Amino acid sequence: MTATVISPIESKWYTTKQVALMLGYGLTKTKHLILSGQLGSIKDGGSRRILPEHVDAYIRRKVQEAA
């Protein structure tokens, strides 16, 4: 009998709370970044979703500003 390996499903987008945890920010600051346009997001029904590439772009900008 062979073991079945189940790989985790990779998220295609993140919630605001997930991004706040990833960045080490509070939820309020993360929401401010979204509302001010510093962090891209899309509206999905009544929720905001952030694509991984939006998080990457935000981080790249912050690194460039620090350099």
Summarize the structure.
The mean pLDDT is 92. This protein is 48% helix and 13% strand.
Description:
- With 67 residues, the chain is α+β, with helices and mostly antiparallel strands.
- The chain has one domain.
- It has 3 helices and 3 strands.
- Strands 1-3-2 form a 3-stranded antiparallel sheet.
- Helix 1 (16-23) packs across helix 2.
- The longest helix has 15 residues, at 52-66.
- The protein is extended, with a radius of gyration of 15 Å.
Task: Supply the key terms.
alpha+beta, 3-stranded antiparallel sheet, 3 strands, 3 helices, 67 residues
Mean pLDDT, to the nearest integer, reads 92
Order of helices and strands: EHHEEH
The shape, in one word, is extended
Helix content: 40-55%
What's the topology here?
Elements: E1 14-15, H1 16-23, H2 27-35, E2 42-44, E3 47-50, H3 52-66
